[in-house]
Amino acid sequence: AEIDKSEAFANLRTLAIVAVVLGCIAIGAAAGTGVSISMSLAKPINKLTDAVNKFRGGNRESRANIHRGDELGVLANSFDGMAQELSALTTDLEKRVAERTAESEGRAKELARSNTELQQFAYVASHDLQEPLRMVQGYTQLNKEHLLVAICKALNITTHEHHDVVGIDKAALKTKIRALKTERDAAIEAGDHAKL
Predict the structure, then answer these.
(1) What angle do CA 66, 70, 71 make, to 5 degrees?
(2) Is 144 exposed, middle or buried (CB count within 10 Å of its CB: 0-12, 13-18, 19+)?
(3) Which string of DSSP letters, residue by residue, matches the chain?
(4) Tens digits of residue pLDDT in 10-31
(5) In this structure, what is the dihedral angle of CA atoms 109, 111, 112, 118, given to the nearest 10 degrees?
(6) Do 64 and 80 form a contact (C-beta atoms < 8 A)?
């Protein structure tokens, strides 16, 4: 019994069709599985990337919030922990800067008040230093004979009749007063209270 060619190849054709259908099903299943795995990886990666970009952009509250048991979950949890620590450190730093700024402003106000007081004191001291010179000039013009007596009176110095007038150098007195004013102004500008 010989088998007809068409009968012999009919089984082969059926087998080929079944193989092609099974191959297509296998390819479709593999593609579906690949897409499913790809989607399950891409979504958390995109979420983590978005959280990182927001954090980098200044949103210190941005977190990934990905809860998985694989490496992506570990990476997301590490990012969330780091973001939390950086937020706390930044908040603490901003608080310290605000406190120090307030302290500096307080010191600046105190220094300004102190400088104002020093300037007022310097003005009064300058006036007080020039007053004896004005008195000396006035006494000189009134009565040059009694100049030493007038100076001694102005400076509260006890005089005796045996003191002789040897002459007073008004230019030297003015120079000394100007030098004292210059030292005073430099001390005020430098904030050196000891020199005043």
Answers:
(1) 85
(2) exposed
(3) -PPPHHHHHHHHHHHHHHHHHHHHHHHHHHHHHHHHHHHHHHHHHHHHHHHHHHHHTT-TT-------SSHHHHHHHHHHHHHHHHHHHHHHHHHHHHHHHHHHHHHHHHHHHHHHHHHHHHHHHHHHHHHHHHHHHHHHHH-GGGHHHHHHHHTT----TTPPP----HHHHHHHHHHHHHHHHHHHHHT-GGG-
(4) 777 888 899 999 999 999 999 9
(5) 150
(6) yes
- The per-residue pLDDT for range 178-191, each reduced to its tens digit, is 888 888 888 888 88
Task: Report the predicted TM-score, pTM, of the whole model to 2 decimal places.
Answer: 0.43
**Phi, psi (rounded to 5 degrees) for 191:** 75, 25
Neighbours of 146 (CB within 10 A): 13
